[in-house]
């Protein structure tokens, strides 16, 4: 690369720049509807949303696998419509489904990826060794890929996306279907490559994953961005604390409990939600006024079986913004 | 440093993919064996069941040869067709494992990827045809032109397979489904063989079949291969060719047309299906 990236002649430090992106499939379904976003160099960027929100479609556009219906998209300064090959040279792409050649060995898969991205012969041996040890697969280098566990195949897939040391890597739901241990190892791996300066764009429906890894994120629903910011900013917008109250009784009891909470005054009425087994109250003085609420519920004959005061999660953010939970 | 075989140049992309598909063929000899079985069964059964009856019809058109010699070029073309079917199935596997999309998201050119795969398939087909020719020879087929004739037949078989390789790979990209690709490609295989000069001379075929046989690429491949092993022009009275060389050019033209259509299809179906 070498030279300063420019967008419309203006120097920029953004790795990805998306303006007015719209994707309508041939059957008329609009998967992405007017998305704007910028990802800065070296950022760990999260692209969150439920199934069908348009995450994978957007990533496929950024990786030049789909041509958008409308909008301007630049990756590493290259226009995806006119400089597709330059974009592909400068990115790593890890699809949602694990993509490895089952008939080749682990090492042959990584070597093929080296050849795919034009890593010079002199460099290949070093890259293969470094990457296999980075993803803890050096000891199974001669094993056919189809003999590996799901987690190991994912790590091999991730290694293949990085052989050319791309400045930007797209990870489309990389930990879906993995057990917690395999997930942790991949997270650790992604953090390490991000620490080395690689810009990472991660799509996920695991909000905990985004919270732990991402510097900034956007939440998407029905193809549109509904909120963006750092995980802490977004959680801060919900409030400082959340009181979850678990109740016995039916839907009527939960509705009455919510009304009592609203009538108490200290709580913002917009931040009182009925949950599956009780109510949830969000605010900045929840801890202080929580006991008042519990007493009021008891006096109204509503039986409280448990309560918890906790910090908001990204799921609470999603719930607040959309009125429904993501997880 | 630019490495010629790194995948950065078109030639490099082709070599890298040929190597990969070659490696996969070696790892999976089952595919190689399976596409040989049906043609070999045909060779043995046709010789045993129809050998005496068909021999008379054959001698009426090409005097002085046995049915083994007449049949061998047809079985060679059958091997080429069967092997081409498994090529498309291999591509569907690549689509299913996500490797196809991984390659599309890389700087490799899709056309170089397909060409590299087809070159690897050619190597596989060479091996398979060589096996069939040896078995045919052991069963009594006469190869008047010796080793050069064998090499010629193998070459014609490879050239003949080109259009069906393109067809089965195009089916793979279109259907993205193993069963559909296998079903359609296999379904066409037997009509292509029977509606040609493969098993009987065109004159001995029913009248309604003859016009089809005259334009069927299988007829052109079989007639060229027959001429090569006999060392004389035995090309049927075809509308597009009267000599082995002309028939060979017809095969090359058919290959070219199918390859262009296949690559065009690959390019339009792999990048986008948005409005």
UniProtKB/TrEMBL annotation, chain B:
List, alphabetically, the InterPro entries matched. ABC2_TM, ABC2_TM_bact-type, ABC_2_transport, Nod_factor_ABC_transporter
| Localization | Membrane
Protein keywords: Membrane, Transmembrane, Transmembrane helix
Q: How does it sit in the membrane?
A: Multi-pass membrane protein
| Regions crossing the membrane | 30-50, 70-93, 114-141, 147-171, 183-202, 247-268
**Under the GO molecular function aspect, what terms does this record hold?**
ABC-type transporter activity
One of the record's GO cellular component terms: ATP-binding cassette (ABC) transporter complex
User: What is this protein's record name?
Assistant: ABC-2 type transporter
Q: Which residues form the ABC transmembrane type-2 domain?
A: 30-269
- The principal location of this protein is membrane
Q: Which domain of life is it from?
A: Archaea
- Which Pfam families has this protein been placed in? ABC2_membrane
């Amino acid at each position: 690369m070498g030279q300063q990236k420019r967008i419309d002649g203006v120097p920029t430090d953004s790795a990805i720049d998306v303006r007015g992106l719209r994707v309508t499939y041939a059957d008329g379904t609009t998967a992405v509807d007017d998305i704007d976003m910028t990802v800065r160099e070296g950022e760990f960027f999260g692209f969150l949303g439920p199934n069908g929100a348009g995450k994978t479609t957007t990533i496929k556009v950024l990786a030049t696998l789909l041509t958008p219906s409308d909008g301007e998209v630049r990756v590493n300064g290259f226009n995806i419509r006119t400089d597709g090959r330059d974009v592909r040279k400068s990115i790593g792409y890890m699809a949602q489904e694990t993509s490895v050649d089952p008939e080749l060995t682990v090492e042959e898969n990584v070597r093929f990826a080296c050849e795919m991205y034009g890593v010079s012969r002199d460099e290949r041996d070093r890259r293969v060794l470094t990457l296999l040890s980075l993803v803890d697969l050096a000891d199974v280098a001669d094993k056919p890929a189809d003999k590996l566990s799901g987690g190991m195949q994912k790590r091999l897939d991730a290694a293949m996306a990085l052989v050319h040391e791309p400045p930007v890597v797209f990870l489309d739901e990389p930990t879906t279907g993995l057990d917690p241990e395999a997930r942790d190892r991949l997270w650790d791996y992604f953090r390490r490559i991000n620490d080395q300066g690689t810009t990472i764009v991660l799509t996920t429906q695991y909000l905990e994953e985004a919270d732990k890894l991402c510097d900034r994120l956007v939440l998407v629903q029905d193809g549109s961005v509904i909120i963006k910011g750092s995980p802490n900013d977004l959680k801060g917008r919900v409030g400082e604390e959340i009181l979850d109250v678990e109740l016995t009784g039916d839907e009527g009891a939960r509705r009455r409990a919510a009304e009592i909470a609203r009538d108490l005054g200290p709580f913002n009425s917009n931040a009182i939600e009925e949950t599956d087994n009780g109510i949830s109250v969000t605010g900045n003085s929840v801890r202080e006024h929580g006991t008042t609420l519990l007493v009021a519920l008891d006096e109204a004959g509503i039986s409280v079986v448990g309560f918890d005061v906790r910090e908001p999660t990204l799921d609470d953010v999603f719930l607040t913004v959309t009125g429904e939970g993501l997880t | 440093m630019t490495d010629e075989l790194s995948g950065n140049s078109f030639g490099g992309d082709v070599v890298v993919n040929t190597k990969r598909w070659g490696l996969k063929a070696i790892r999976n000899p089952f595919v190689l064996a399976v596409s040989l079985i049906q043609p070999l069964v045909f060779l043995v059964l046709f010789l045993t069941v129809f050998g005496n009856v068909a021999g008379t019809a054959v001698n009426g058109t090409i005097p002085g040869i046995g049915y083994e010699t007449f049949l061998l070029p047809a079985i060679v073309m059958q091997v080429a067709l069967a092997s081409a079917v498994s090529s498309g199935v291999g591509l569907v596997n690549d689509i299913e494992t996500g490797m196809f999309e991984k390659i599309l998201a890389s700087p490799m050119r899709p056309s170089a990827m397909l060409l590299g795969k087809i070159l690897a398939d050619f190597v596989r087909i060479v091996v398979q045809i060589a096996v069939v020719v040896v078995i045919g020879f052991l069963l009594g087929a006469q190869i008047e032109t010796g080793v050069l004739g064998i090499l010629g037949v193998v070459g014609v078989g490879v050239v003949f397979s080109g259009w069906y390789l393109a067809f089965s790979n195009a089916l793979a990209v279109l259907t993205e489904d193993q069963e559909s690709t296998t079903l359609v490609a296999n379904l066409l295989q037997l009509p292509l063989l029977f509606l040609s000069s493969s098993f009987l001379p065109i004159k001995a075929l029913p009248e309604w079949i003859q016009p089809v046989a005259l334009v069927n690429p299988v007829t052109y491949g079989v007639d060229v291969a027959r001429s090569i092993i006999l060392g004389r022009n035995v090309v049927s009275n075809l509308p597009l060719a009267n000599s082995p060389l002309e028939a060979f050019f017809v095969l090359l033209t058919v290959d070219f047309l199918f390859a262009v259509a296949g690559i065009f299809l690959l390019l339009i179906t792999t990048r986008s299906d948005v409005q």
